[in-house]
Design a protein that fits this description.
The complex is a heterodimer of chains A (about 575) and B (about 240).
Chain A lengths: L3 H4 L2 H4 L9 H11 L3 E9 L5 E8 L4 E8 L18 E7 L4 H10 L12 E9 L4 H9 L6 H7 L1 E9 L9 H7 L8 H25 L9 H6 L1 E6 L4 H6 L1 H22 L5 H19 L6 H28 L6 H11 L2 H13 L2 H4 L20 H11 L1 H4 L11 E6 L5 E5 L14 H18 L5 H7 L4 H11 L17 H12 L2 E5 L5 E5 L29
Helix pairs in contact in A: 5-8, 11-15, 12-13, 12-15, 13-15, 14-15, 17-19
Chain B lengths: L1 E2 L1 H14 L6 H14 L4 H12 L8 E5 L3 E10 H15 L6 E9 L4 H10 L3 E8 L2 E7 L7 E6 L9 E6 L2 H7 L9 E5 L1 H14 L1 E2 L2 H12 L2 E2 L3 H4 L5
Parallel strand pairs in B: 3-4
Antiparallel strand pairs in B: 1-10, 2-3, 4-8, 5-6, 5-8, 6-7, 7-9
Helix pairs in contact in B: 1-2, 1-8, 2-3, 2-4, 2-5, 4-5
The chains are: A alpha+beta (about 575), B alpha+beta (about 240).
């Protein structure tokens, strides 16, 4: 596997793309192959599309209910930020069926989101806002008997975008421990949250069809299936996701380790020879990514340049495959050589796209890893370790942190804090913004450095002591000591970045996590938040139970002639 | 009202942070409260008792006053086990050997029942523990076998005078070895009561299935403590979240 010093650099993590192990991919594989049944016991919308819908889900192991409330929202109040308090849609995914009493309780609380309370029968709480650019346009076109222009759809990619999907016990919901021990259908990280977004996608198209049929019952047409598949769900992700990565280092290590294990298996498999058909699939994959990237509309200069560079370099890859392809299958070429070439000559994002494409070629080697994406986030002190050994561990595993010069002002140029507005995480400028005394402890590098310095001094004064004695004398260090000792046993360890640096790019953290979710079309709106698209290209619920076409990654415009 | 375990943990982390606890301390303290409450040991009542002290002073940690490598005395200086229980058990874990144990007396400390969670945690790392202390006019004895997830909790009549605010803990490779090695200390009167591990397990499963019942006033108290770590929102600060 690739070393932590390479993989855990923040700019590389921020260049990851989805893989076969991403949570949307694994969820879709499961729903389609297990033929989950989705029915609609309640579809109670008025002519404006407002009201209540309940979808009943018969998964392989259990029954679930997806309860959705559609509300009128003044366009002036439409806001994707965490601090918003009104939305076009609010939803809850519940275990079992929902009776009238529970539905009323949900109606009283789900639309309030963070200001409401739910109970442990609820697994996910979410909300969504309409796309001002596409929703009315699509409904109008359908109303007039036309399919929407695919170029308009391509520019946005969705009819609704979700701004949060809460699970894991927030606001009174079921704990993750309950979900993974009781509900096998969702016993993978973020499976229930992803499912909530998937059904939102289904509803968004059903609602568009419904509104068109109400407005012009005789003329209206339904959305074409190929367009439906190309419609995803939008997502806006901001700083709120960043602390999650720092506060769940074992989980992030696990995700990265499984991804790297997949890549290592692929490289090892190529040592037994490459099939011509595999090379053709790689070429097709590269072609698809080039088209996918060319269809992305982003106002972010950095991302736009990166997209162009990746396209150019993938063209080079395709040329090389065309020229050398016939010989590669016979001359014992291995993927390790391609990866090495890309690392030496191409952009980091191209490198990670190629890794994603290679992983895609070997589902039989990769897919079983999807069952190993979870680990309990639990840190423990190893108290018997000698202080001198602990110093060596820090020098070995946290050399990146010790290399940061914290005497430079820019090394501590920002700080992270929680706002009183819905506890939203925010970034402040050191010595300028309010709240430094309430800083969140996300500066792992600085905490490591402070602890290391204190430990070295302690070791000089009291040699031959163990960590337990060090903590007795320095009790405020117990947290970082537990973290370092725990992470030192993991393969990839902590993310190697000083999150307090003036020029830190939190967007890399967001993108890293979103890549494991499986999103596409990254459109950074600043260094602090990013828009993206979920489930674009994915099978529809009508495809469940049919042979799975698991090739919807890097969605591209369907070939469609409006009739 | 009902809250989830995860929600409770997040709230307790920030509430303890609001009381001045550092990372590590607030993780451990939250784990202790949650474990006791979800296993039927009235963690919230004990938390309320602890808050009446913790809310009046900056965090105080224990001092090591005696240490011969296997026997320790820690002076809690009137602090809560929430702040010194982890250090005490970690000292014992470090001193335990494959064939012999270690002992520790923690004097001048409060909220001692919280130590149970730390003993269970030590057992997870394959160290057995036995602890006892005086509670009113009886004695509480807690034993956890190495590798076990639940303790044995018993109460006995007193047969000797214990200091009312101290706690003795012994560690070793197994409860049997501890009881043999430290038998001169482990003398109790007649058995009063046993809290069965099956009841602890039922309590835990129930809280996982239906949520943890918490008094709204306590939840409000935690919210008020959480507010101490939040920063006032201004138009300028909104820019720090992407506006």
């Amino acid at each position: 596997m690739r070393p932590a010093s390479q993989v855990m650099q923040l700019d590389r993590l921020g260049s990851f793309h989805q893989t076969r192990l991403s949570f949307m991919r694994t969820l879709v594989r499961r729903m389609v192959t297990e033929n989950w049944q989705i029915s609609t016991p309640i579809f109670d919308l008025d002519d404006q599309g407002y009201g209540t819908v309940v979808y009943q889900v018969e998964a392989k192991y259990g029954t679930f209910s997806y309860v959705l409330f559609s509300h009128y929202l003044d366009p002036e109040c439409r806001n994707d930020r965490v601090i918003a308090d009104q939305w076009d849609l609010t939803m809850a995914l519940c275990e079992g069926t929902v009776d009238a009493e529970q539905l009323e309780y949900l109606r009283d609380n789900v639309p309030k989101q963070e200001a409401g309370r739910v109970d442990s029968r609820v697994m996910v709480l979410s909300r969504a806002n309409r796309s001002a650019r596409t929703f009315e346009y699509v409904v109008n076109e359908l109303t007039n008997g036309r399919q929407p222009n695919i170029d308009v759809i391509a520019e946005v990619g969705y009819l609704y975008r979700t701004t949060a999907a809460y699970g894991s016990g927030k606001l009174g919901m079921a704990d993750w421990e309950k979900v993974w021990t009781k509900h096998r259908d969702f016993a993978r990280p973020f499976a229930a949250e992803m499912f909530t977004c998937y059904i939102l996608r289904h509803f968004s198209m059903e609602q568009a069809d419904y509104l068109a049929s109400k407005r012009a019952p005789k003329i209206a047409v339904k959305l074409d299936e190929s367009i439906k598949r190309y419609i995803g769900i939008g997502n806006s992700t901001g700083l709120g996701m960043a602390p999650f990565l720092i506060n769940h280092p074992l989980l992030i290590n696990q995700w990265v380790e499984m991804r790297e294990t997949a890549l290592a298996r692929v490289v090892a498999a190529s040592e037994s020879g490459l099939q011509k058909e595999t090379l053709v699939r790689l070429d097709l994959g590269a072609k698809r990514v080039i088209q996918h990237l060319s269809e992305i509309v982003t106002g972010d200069e950095r991302q736009h340049k990166s997209n162009l560079t990746v396209q150019k370099e993938l063209h080079l890859l395709r040329l090389w495959l065309e020229e050398a392809g016939p010989e590669l299958a016979s001359n014992q070429f291995v993927w390790g050589t391609l990866i090495e070439y890309a690392e030496q000559h191409w952009h980091v994002e191209t490198q990670e796209v190629i890794n994603t494409l290679l992983i895609e070629l070997y589902p039989e080697l990769v897919d079983e890893l999807e069952e190993r994406m979870w680990v309990e986030e639990c840190y423990d002190v190893t108290p018997e370790m000698s202080v001198s050994d602990m110093i060596s561990v820090i020098e070995d595993k946290y050399d990146w942190a010790l290399a940061i010069d914290f005497s430079k002002q820019e090394s501590s140029g920002v700080f992270w804090y929680r706002s009183e507005e819905k506890m939203e995480p925010r970034l402040g400028q050191t010595d300028i913004d309010l709240g430094m005394e309430k800083e969140m402890p996300l500066g792992i590098g600085r905490r490591v450095r402070d602890c290391y310095d204190q430990m070295c001094s302690y070791n000089l004064a009291q040699p031959n002591q163990n960590v337990a004695h060090f903590i007795i004398k320095n009790p405020t260090r117990s947290g970082i000591v537990a973290r370092m000792q725990t992470m030192a046993k993991s393969h990839y360890g902590d993310i190697r970045e000083n999150l307090l640096h003036t020029d830190v790019l939190p967007i890399h953290l967001l993108r890293c996590k979103l890549s494991f979710f499986g999103v596409s079309k990254f459109d950074p709106r600043s260094r602090l938040w990013v828009r993206n698209t979920m489930f674009q290209g994915a099978p529809l619920i009508d495809d469940f139970g049919k042979p799975l076409c698991d090739d919807w990654q890097f969605p591209i415009k369907p070939i469609f002639t409006a009739g | 009202m009902k809250v989830s375990k995860n929600e409770l943990k997040a709230s307790l982390h920030k509430a303890f942070e609001g009381l001045g606890f550092h990372s590590g301390d607030y993780h451990n303290a939250a784990d202790m409260v949650i474990w006791l409450e979800t296993h039927g040991f009235y963690g919230f009542d004990r938390l309320l008792a602890a808050l009446s002290y913790l809310n009046t002073t900056a965090p105080v940690h224990a001092d090591l006053s005696q240490d011969d490598g296997y026997n320790f005395v820690l002076d809690g200086k009137g602090t809560s086990i929430l702040l010194c229980g982890s250090e005490a058990v970690d000292l014992l874990r470090a001193a335990s050997k494959a064939d012999s144990g270690a002992g520790l007396e923690l004097i001048n400390c409060y909220n001692r029942t919280f130590i149970i969670q730390r003993l269970v945690k030590a057992a997870e790392s394959n160290v057995a523990c036995v602890a006892y202390w005086r509670q009113l006019d009886y004695c509480v004895k807690v034993s956890v076998e190495a590798g076990d997830f639940l303790p044995e909790y018993k109460t006995f009549s007193l047969i000797e005078e214990f200091d009312t605010q101290s706690l003795r803990i012994f560690s070793g490779p197994s409860v049997g070895i501890i009881e043999n090695q430290f038998k001169q200390y482990l003398k109790f009167g007649s058995l009063i009561d046993t809290y069965e591990s099956v009841k602890m397990e039922d309590c835990y499963r129930n809280s996982l299935e239906h949520g943890v019942e918490i008094d709204e006033a306590l939840w409000k108290t935690l919210d008020d403590l959480v507010a101490r770590v939040l920063v006032e929102s201004t138009e300028l600060s909104r820019a720090g979240a992407g506006d």
